[in-house]
């Protein structure tokens, strides 16, 4: 399931084709043709010099760099990243000066063509292996962060490069999205949850804005809505289409729908990308239902919503959906799975996106119900997540260090038997015990985010190389 709630912008990359005049000219023309064909196949919009703008559309001189930089500036709002193509040795100064003059502050991927062992004569040799080192040296000197292909040289027509380019686009998407995130913090965190405290100032310094509202304002507005209003009736229809309703009373469904209307208005009015909500116990005690269904629907619609006002949790959910193009879920590292040291039970009351819950059904939250009355917890969702790839991780602010830090890893969700309630899954993670040691020793929260993908390397590259987070990648 790809982006539904918010139209995903078509990927747009600037292309710099490096050249040196004493190498064969046809190499530049061939590279231009190769990359345009690849971009069309992968549905990526290219921005590059025309073959009449400079010699064959390549970048070699300072004047070429100025032309290319000006072109990139004209497309500043579209460009997510820059691809450097080296069909031959290239001119390291021209490449570095182009990116420096454009000053877009976007990710950069450096590709170099391989030589053919049978074509190392003057007419066909490339020397791009060597030239790539020189280009990267100059980028390093300019202080421009960049991404490397896994193989030092790789042809654009290889399947491996196509996947690396798509992964780079995902890195660009994460970097662009995370530099201007708007999160709504709805209500105060539950009193017993010091674990979800965070530094709003550190987030703001890194481009993450937090808009707060008291929960009473949401509940008050919801309480004033008439059940017969068209907005409420339309939401009731959406809820019925979204999940099996189980034994949920009509009055509880109306309460859920009214609150959903107000929450979505708050999101729209403040142009929010994600929310973190005080999901207990005030909602149940003062309003009479759970907010899980609304949170699940928002997350499924690519507007992630985290419980317990976990702002950095929902920030992680947003990052993972940018990387993968699919919804994320906030979960508890909850239980051991029998005696298997590499398996763990992931759990939450009931707000995971529908994509994780093929057997989704509305019901109550039994654990919470023991203190607030189970009749006041309708709206929690139940369902078991089936086997799938797993990326897990967590962003956190570290106040003593004044930084944003994160851990990221991959594993698998399994179909192992699990007899319990709520939203639940079993995960198999290599060296899980070592991971738990790291989580505990480094003061991370009991919440972690899961995504049904293997996008850990994309997140690491975006967080560490371009956003400046301190990142631990779990083996």
UniProtKB/TrEMBL annotation:
The alphabetized UniProt keywords are: Carbohydrate metabolism, Isomerase
What InterPro entries does the record tag this protein with?
Fuc_isomerase_C (IPR015888), Fucose_isomerase_N/cen_sf (IPR009015)
The name under which this protein is listed is L-fucose isomerase
Instruction: Work out whether the entry's keyword set contains Isomerase.
Output: yes
One Gene Ontology molecular-function label: L-fucose isomerase activity
Single GO cellular component term: cytoplasm
Every copy of the L-fucose isomerase C-terminal domain together lies at 346-472
Signal peptide (from-to): none
* Alphabetical list of Pfam families matching this protein: Fucose_iso_C (PF02952)
Tagged with keyword Isomerase: yes
Q: Tell me the Gene Ontology biological-process terms attached to this UniProt entry.
A: fucose metabolic process
Q: Which superkingdom, per the lineage?
A: Bacteria
Q: Which CDD domains does this UniProt record tie to the protein?
A: L-fuc_L-ara-isomerases
Organism of provenance: Cyclobacterium xiamenense
């Amino acid at each position: 399931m790809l982006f539904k709630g918010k139209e995903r912008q078509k990927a747009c990359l600037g292309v710099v084709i490096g050249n040196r005049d004493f190498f064969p000219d046809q190499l530049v023309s061939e590279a231009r043709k190769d990359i345009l064909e690849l971009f069309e196949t992968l549905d990526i919009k290219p921005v590059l010099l025309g073959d009449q703008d400079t010699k064959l559309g390549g970048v070699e001189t300072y004047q070429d760099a100025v032309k290319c930089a000006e072109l990139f500036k004209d497309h500043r709002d579209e460009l997510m990243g820059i691809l450097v193509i080296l069909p031959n040795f290239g001119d390291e100064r021209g490449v570095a000066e182009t990116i420096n003059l454009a000053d877009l502050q976007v990710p950069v991927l450096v590709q170099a063509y391989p030589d053919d062992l049978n074509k190392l004569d003057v007419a066909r040799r490339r020397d791009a292996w060597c030239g790539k080192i020189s280009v990267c040296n100059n980028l390093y000197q300019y202080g421009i962060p960049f991404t490397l292909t896994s193989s030092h040289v790789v042809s654009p027509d290889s399947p491996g490069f196509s996947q690396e380019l798509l992964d780079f686009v995902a890195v660009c998407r994460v970097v662009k999205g995370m530099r201007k995130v708007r999160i709504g913090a709805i209500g105060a965190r539950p009193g017993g949850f010091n674990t979800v405290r965070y530094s709003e100032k550190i987030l703001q310094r890194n481009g993450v804005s937090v808009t707060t509202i008291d929960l009473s304002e949401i509940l008050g507005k919801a309480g004033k809505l008439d059940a017969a209003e068209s907005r409420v009736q339309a939401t009731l229809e959406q809820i019925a289409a979204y999940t099996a309703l189980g034994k949920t009373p009509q009055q509880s469904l109306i309460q859920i729908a009214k609150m959903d209307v107000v929450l979505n208005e708050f999101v729209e009015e403040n142009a929010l990308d994600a929310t973190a909500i005080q999901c207990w116990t005030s909602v149940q005690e003062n309003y009479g239902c759970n907010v899980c269904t609304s949170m699940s629907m928002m997350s499924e619609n690519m507007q992630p919503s985290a419980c317990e006002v976990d702002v950095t949790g929902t920030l992680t959910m947003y990052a993972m959906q940018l990387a993968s193009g699919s919804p994320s879920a906030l979960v508890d590292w909850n239980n051991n799975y029998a005696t298997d040291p590499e398996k763990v039970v992931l759990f939450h009351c009931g707000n995971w996106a529908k994509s994780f819950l093929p057997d989704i059904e509305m019901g109550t939250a039994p654990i919470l119900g023991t203190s607030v009355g189970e009749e006041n917890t309708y709206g929690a969702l139940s369902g078991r997540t089936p086997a799938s790839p797993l990326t897990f991780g967590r962003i956190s602010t570290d106040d003593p260090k004044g930084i944003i830090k994160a851990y990221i890893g991959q594993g698998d969700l399994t179909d192992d038997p699990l007899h319990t309630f709520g939203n639940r899954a079993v995960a198999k993670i290599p060296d899980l015990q070592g991971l738990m040691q790291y989580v505990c020793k480094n003061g991370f929260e009991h919440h972690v985010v899961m995504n049904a993908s293997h996008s850990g390397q994309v997140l690491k590259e975006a967080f560490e190389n371009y956003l400046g987070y301190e990142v631990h990648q779990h083996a």
